[in-house]
Amino acid sequence: MLRSRLTMRGFTLLELMVVIAIISILASLSAPTFTRQIAKAKLIEAQNLATQHQSMVEEFILLHGSFPTKSEFNLIKHPLSKDSIVKSLSVNSQNNGSGILAISLNSSTGVNENQYLKYTRDVNRNWHCSSDLDSNILPMQCQSLAEEDRMTLEEILSNAVSSHATDVHIEHSNLGVTVFQRNFGLLHKIANLSQGSNLINRIKMRSNLDLSETRRTQEGQFLFEERNRQTFIRVSIVATVKGEKIAMRLLPEKNRLGLNDIGIKPSLLTTLNSTLKGASGLILVCGATGAGKSTTLYSCLDSLNNGKRTIFTIEDPVEYEIQGLFQCEPNHAIGLDSAALLKSFLRQDPDIIMVGEIRDSITANLAVNAALTGHLVLATLHTNSALDAMHRCHGWQVDFFSLVSSLKLIIHQSMLYKIASQQPVFNGLQPLWTDSLPKSYEMLISTPALWQTFTHKDSEGSNCLGIKSNTKMTKSITGMGYPKARFFLII
């Protein structure tokens, strides 16, 4: 009875006061820590915002040779959020060509409220940057704007396009920035830039990437225009132990070639054209990076794009926009990958589906199933040989009977580089089974009589097909049948 009364009596006034006092003490001890963390986060946000606008101003200077006016700056600056500690970002251009980038902060930040970067130009027309000495926000790094650094982006890309380069590589290290470009399959060093070069930030800004991110991989794209020509630039950035590494793939605007003009031999071209006329089936174009697989697929799509059939494509990214096609890009930030897009396409009443690249088992199975259900599917694979495509499908556990029922043609494409030219090399495999399907992947890979082969005249065609043979086996390899012939995969 006494215990029940004690449990029901509640807290006395003294006990409540003690509890409140303890809570107050704990709150007073932890509040400064929380306040400092919030203030630090806001300062980092201000630094990132300032760095972005600093790069924008320097990009404008290098492109136009002058400091931006207030109206020009308002067109490129980002809007400020209501809860930002940055009150304002502004520029003040002078008549002598100099200018000031100013940032105003709220008084609660604990740092200098008004900070600036001053840009001036000397008699040699070189730009210089200076800042207030006690700056905590601006600048993260006052970049060099000397005339010699102007060759960074615009001139690098212009020279690369003029010399028909396919890629530009940029390596950042403690010693500086090194620029390479790939011509006809080989890398060549182009320039060594100073450590203070603003090249990487300018590329990030043009590609709409996070300027402050230096640890994660980033991918983007932008359009480079000069001399009445346009070049689509695909950007990839990775973090290495020495610094950031950038690779830019150059895709110049050009008239796409027809199937008759891309270098396919007549026998394989005839087979490809007849396969494209079919209502359904799977056509695979295989090869290494830079072999020209996308160019071949675009040529196929141009021949199919007559307005009588609906055509959907999955490209990452879309390299050329084509009238009459429904072209889509995966967006991994919102969970929209190639498999999700392919599922959606099947509800859009498509006639033809192009998958820019099959990278996983889910996409591979969906592509095969789409080809089985009355759709013509064109896709690419990264493989060393035509027959190696079957090895990849086996590894992905693609349903065997669905694959052999839908497969119509495999084309392997490679690029033959010479001193100052390049030539595409095409080889192909066409299934010869009709009523009687092969029983397993092993049988498919080890039986030459199941395939009709197409080899390029000037290439090591058998190797590109995944076949190793001697002269006595020629007839068996061309599908005439020879029981002792064997296939060897190149792995």
Blueprint of the fold:
Elements: H1 2-8, H2 13-64, H3 70-76, E1 86-93, E2 99-105, E3 114-121, E4 127-131, H4 154-162, E5 167-173, E6 176-183, E7 186-193, H5 199-206, E8 218-226, E9 229-239, E10 244-252, H6 266-276, E11 281-287, H7 293-304, E12 311-314, E13 326-328, H8 338-345, E14 352-355, H9 361-372, E15 376-381, H10 388-395, H11 400-406, E16 407-417, E17 422-431, H12 441-446, E18 451-454, H13 461-465, H14 474-477
Parallel strand pairs: 11-15, 11-16, 12-13, 12-14, 14-15
Antiparallel strand pairs: 1-2, 2-3, 3-4, 5-6, 5-10, 6-7, 8-9, 9-10, 16-17, 17-18
Give a structural overview:
By secondary structure, the chain is an alpha/beta fold. It has helices at residues 2-8, 13-64, 70-76, 154-162, 199-206, 266-276, 293-304, 338-345, 361-372, 388-395, 400-406, 441-446, 461-465, 474-477, and strands at residues 86-93, 99-105, 114-121, 127-131, 167-173, 176-183, 186-193, 218-226, 229-239, 244-252, 281-287, 311-314, 326-328, 352-355, 376-381, 407-417, 422-431, 451-454. It has an eight-stranded mixed sheet, with helices on both faces. Strands 7-6-5-10-9-8 form a six-stranded antiparallel sheet, with helices on one face. The protein has a four-stranded antiparallel sheet with strand order 1-2-3-4. α8 (338-345) packs parallel to α9 (361-372).
Features:
18 strands, 32% helix
- Which term fits the overall shape? globular
Low-confidence region ranges: 133-150, 458-462, 468-491
Described by strand count, sense and barrel closure, the largest sheet is: 8 strands, mixed
Question: What share of the residues does DSSP label as strand, in percent?
Answer: 25-35%
Number of strands: 18
| Radius of gyration, whole Å | 31 Å
Give the rounded overall mean pLDDT: 78
- Give the neighbour order of strands across the main sheet: 13-12-14-15-11-16-17-18
Distance between the termini: 84 Å
Question: Please, how many helices?
Answer: 14
- Secondary structure class reads alpha/beta
Percent helix range = 25-40%
